[in-house]
Amino acid sequence: RHRPRDGRHTSLEPLSQRRLRTLSTKSMVEANGTSTAAARALPAIVKAVPSGDTVLVMGADSSRGPPPEKLISLTGITAPRLANRSTDDSPWAWASRDFLRRLVIGKPVTFVIEAPASTVPGGPTGGPPREFGTVYFEGLPLQQHIVAAGWARLKGVALQDEVLAPIEAASKEEGRGVWNEASAASSVRSIKWAGSFDAAGLVAAFGRQPQEAIIEHVPSGSFLRALLLPGFEQVTLSLCGTQCPPLKRGEDGVEEAAPFAREARFFVESRLLHRSVQIALQGVDKNGTLLGTVLHEQGNISLELLRVGLARVADWSSQLSDNPKELREAERQAKAGRLRLWREYVPPQAASELLGRVVEVVSGDTLVVADAANNETRYSLSSIRCPRMGREPEPYAAEAKEALRRLLIGKKVRVTPEYHRSFEGQGGGVQERLFAAVLFDKADRNAAEVLVAEGLASVSKHGGAEERSAHYDALCDAEADAIAAKKGMHSGAPPKKGAAVTDLSLPASKERAKSFLSNFTRGGKLRGVVQYVLSGSRLKVLLLKDHCLVTLALVGVRCPACARRDSPSSGEPFGDEALAATRAACLQREVEVEIESVNDKTGVFNGTLTLPDKRNLSLVLLEAGLASRFGAAADRSVHAADLAKSEGVAKAAGLKVWEDYSEEAAAEEAAANAAAAASEMEPIPDAQKQRVELTLTEIADGAHFYAHVAGDDTVARLHAKLASACAGPPPAMAFEPKVGAVCAARFSQDNEWYRAKVTKRDKGSYTVFFLDYGNCDVVSAERVRPLDPTLAPSVLSAQAVECRLPPPLVDEPGSEGGG
Q: What span, in angstroms and rounded, lies between the C-alpha atoms of 621 and 221?
């Protein structure tokens, strides 16, 4: 609107019938399209209005892709020029363009092009060349609408036009548009060009409230340039939560487009270019580009792009959007219909939902679930990443694992597999991981969301075509809350250090373990967490109060040996079943341990373990037939009567290890063992004693030594074979024997090779015991080699004979020889 010179307020509406009354009858006939030029006009849709005297029209049929376009400058008139970065608006330039934009944008018109000789090159954006012609709207040339409103001046031969000249004279007389010289200075805009103001400050000032705007340019489907009103801030805007295929222009000016990139741009141009919209600013990316949502009277352009398959959800910015769930639902609709970008989309073939129980927590985001048939499956939580464990755990890795253990271990869960991922394993192979949503409690709480909310996990940033959790939006919301509250890894501080754990389960700690026995036995029942299950009756337990990791053997109970990873043997019958039963009952559970004694040679503690449901694990194994009482310790145990009763129940039922049990055979075996024991207690007559000549090889102490049988050449022959086997070059791969392994070791005093057993490892050095001589040595890694299988102790036994002298006889006090 503007004020004419006579003070009257005149609307910027199109040419009205009132104004047409001043036209002659001949002018009316031509205006209604009966002239020859109007008769040969072609139909089109106005796509853009670059200025007050120029329009960009396109074909009406877009079913086969973007239709052809023509940039038409209207003949016979000239409108004020709009500003650019180097020049200001001409007076009334913005009002002139805005009048024409509101009049015809997006509406059907017809047009006639003048002679080809009038064609001039197009603009710098590589659009169609500029041509001159006439555009008809509602039966009248646009020149008449514009001149009648006063937003353009006649030029050239049009000054003498029988129709346009009287219209311009009337507009000039009434002071319409550009003829309102009194207000010309105030019509010039003060434009704030992009880059000349603080984008983040603009977001803070508007507070996510929708602002009036006009879309000025569409470089790509999700990248726009707009002018905010009424402040005339020029902004570069990226659609929040939406990403269309990119368009790039090379140095030679040739445009390179990804599949469906041009279709996405045309989709937005045909709906938004030079249209009045509302823009809600929602953030700024790392490059200073504003993120926001464009709202048209017909809806949200981001949702429309996603629904028709011309865009993907951008995870990194979707959490800033006000409607992330709607964005993902729109994308899911396009995927389901395999529209455009998703034309080759194949839904993930995930397993069906299952109900199970969590039996192990591997890390903060990985766990093992057993189904009703006790089949175990490993799952990783969808769309989150916790700090990694490993030899050097990342900050908050242990806290995340412990939080998930407390949350889920032993609980019933509902697992919904969502997608697979392939990763390169440590050995170079490919590993498949199954990602799932794990819900627990009656309220179906999401375990991943709980971890993210506590700041113990971060939400994964997926690629455009990658599958993600169905709860992704809730995860993003939880992460935003955790960041705002500075929880966990978002606090900027390292996790609180707990008390150091004393590891008494190591072979090197067996002497130290003895010193803790009195403390453990005085403590009665000790609370602990089972860290690892070695076999059905042997476990590693972390004692919470004392912060000690111990190896616990169930006192008086023996389970069948299970298969070992480093051995090809399959173990004893029911050994693996006993291991599985113990693992399912107590792995990573909080239990109570009652320690009775410690093994002097191994440092293994003997005791009783009470499960979370207050059952005695030893009794559970005995009743299931997966264990048997063992040795005198079973009779000395405080639970001796219960152990015997539970074993008797399994024997009577013939369960597992007692399947072939016979009382008669057991009685006969017991009698034979008793007779053998009695015979061993009888002294050997002098006539049956043997005298053996020995050659001492190592003296351990005054009553303990090692020796060879004199005259036996077995050691010499063994030494020759060993020297031949070790004469070649060392193996290509580094040899790192474990504690307890038998190998060939080079004695440091004579540099000869001997059979040895590793008793200790310490930073590249090995303490070894020589099997054929009884002495020890500390050697470096290059002085140990694999032992030839033909020389193994199982083929040729150790040649060092271990000897101990009997203790001296001491007379009892008060006897004849006593003192």
A: 67
